[in-house]
Amino acid sequence: MTYCVGMVLDEGLIFASDSRTNAGVDHVATFRKMNVIAVAGERQIVLLNAGNLATTQSVVSLLKSRLSHDAANLYTVQSLYQAAELVGQTVREVIARDGDGQTQSQGVDYGCSFLVGGQIRGEAPRLFQVYPQGNFIEATPDTPYLQIGEAKYGKPILDRVIRHDTPLAQAIKCTLISFDSTIRSNLSVGLPIDLLWQQRDDFDFAPRHRVTEDDPYFLALRQGWGEGLRQVFGQLPDALWFKDGDGG
C-alpha cells in the first residue's frame, strides 16, 4: 500500500508520495513513487503511482522509453488530458500483458492507480486520477485535491483545510499533516515523503524536497500538531447530559 496526494490550486500544484511499498514484521521495502517528465520552458508532467509495484514500474518504464518515439508520448501530447489518456492506455496495455487483461488473476492483484498532473504551456495547471481500468477523472475547483492508495486517514484534514484558493505554503503544511496522520494509523505507509511544488506558469524545473525521519520541519510540525490537538480537545466542553461519570 502507499499514499499519494496531488493538489491543483490557484497558485499552482503540489504532489507528495510516501516511499513504502510493502510492510510486515520482517520486511519493509522502499521505492520512489514520483516521476517527473519535463521540458524546460514548455511542460512539466508529474506521475505518482500506487498499487502493484511490477505494474507501475512497467508503466513508467514504457512511458519513458517511448519519449523518443514518433508516436504520441509525454513530450509531444498537447494537453494534460492527452497525457492522462496516454497513461491510462499504458496501464491497460501492461495489465493485458501481465494479467491477461484482468486486474486480478490467480490471486495476484495487478491493479494500479496514477495521479497525473502538471502544466503544459498554453493551458492551465491540471490534475487527473487514472484508475486501474485506464479511465480517469479530473480535479476541479470544487475538488482541488486527489488521493490514491491509503487515503482515508489523511482525508479529514484535507477536507477541512484545502480550498482552491489555499496558498501553496499552507497547502504544503496541510499535506504533511495529512501524511503524518496516515503514517500514525497505517503501517503500510511510511517515510521518506517525496514532495514537489510547482508555481502556476513557471516552467523551470519544479523544486523538490525529500522528508526523512530526521527532517526538522516535519518533526516540529508533527509535535506541534499533536500538542495542538490535545490542547483544543482539552478545551472542549463535556457533554451536559453526562453526570457523575455515567450517562444517567
From TrEMBL:
CDD domains: proteasome_beta_bacterial. It comes from the Bacteria. This is Peptidase. It comes from Vogesella facilis. Coiled coil: none annotated. The lineage of its organism: Bacteria, Pseudomonadati, Pseudomonadota, Betaproteobacteria, Neisseriales. InterPro entries: Ntn_hydrolases_N, Proteasome_sua/b, UCP009120_prtse. Pfam families: Proteasome.
